[in-house]
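QA checklist item 7 of 12: single-chain prediction sanity check.
[x] sequence parsed
[x] length recorded as 292
[x] structure emitted
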Amino acid sequence: MDNLVSLKELKPIEGLGTKWFFEIPVEADDNLIQNFLETEITNFNNKYSRFDSNSIISSLNIKKTLENPSIELKFLINIAIEYYTKSNNIFNFLLENELVKSGYGKRFVENSKSKKPNPIKDIEINDNKISIHNGGVDFGGFGKGYLIDLISKKLHSKFNLNEFIINGGGDIYSFSKSNTPRDFYLQHPIKREKYIGKVSLCNQSLTASSTFIRKWKNIEKKSVNHLINPKTNKSIEDCAVFVVSNSAMIADIWATTLSIAKIEEIKNLYRTGEFEFIKIVNNKVYKSPFFK
């Protein structure tokens, strides 16, 4: 790693419910890039965060329709539908109602049993309108990854940065035009001051998903978390997942999916060739060959 380009840290930025950290070359313009990053994160949050009552997504979830949707929004929804199919119906972005019922959200949703949403049937998209027939949109399973990819492309094209690191609340992307890898440590899911290993990334993303960070007691005093099994509409069992992929968005999608999926299902999904993984569940570690 002797050929690593020296990087400097920018000021952390709050957004999408987490802290964002950036490292850029020492000669880059701090203020210009800092302002750009703050604007990008704020704009995305204002559009797509379901925790912002004024966002486009909140409006869509309440009214169940949205006129004249943007190209970007339609792209995000179509990607989510594509991976609902590719994940064998495990990755489901229409579970916002269930998350709110469990206590993970601000708006009121009637706490009654509801039909499980099907993204292929229950959301309709055309040029001028989006309609939701069942469920509610939540981009928590891949929105942060999409934004990391978007910012990464702009840091390279707009500011001509040849090396940088993006860390959006533990979702990491490491870019190097010279194809120089950097090492990153894998944090222990429970003993967070410890590490369970490390991985080298070069133009790749590392995403972690864990039930141990976002846990709370619901109205019935039962322990729940932010990951819902779409087949049961209930929180999944405790686990931690690490995923590496060439795209932060794809890593984000698969990290969410693998957290929910059983090990036999993961073996089949791994055949897509889109990701490498570690899953820790029931005191057992399962991993692909990439993780030595």
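[x] summary fact logged: The chain has a mean pLDDT of 91.
[ ] second reviewer sign-off
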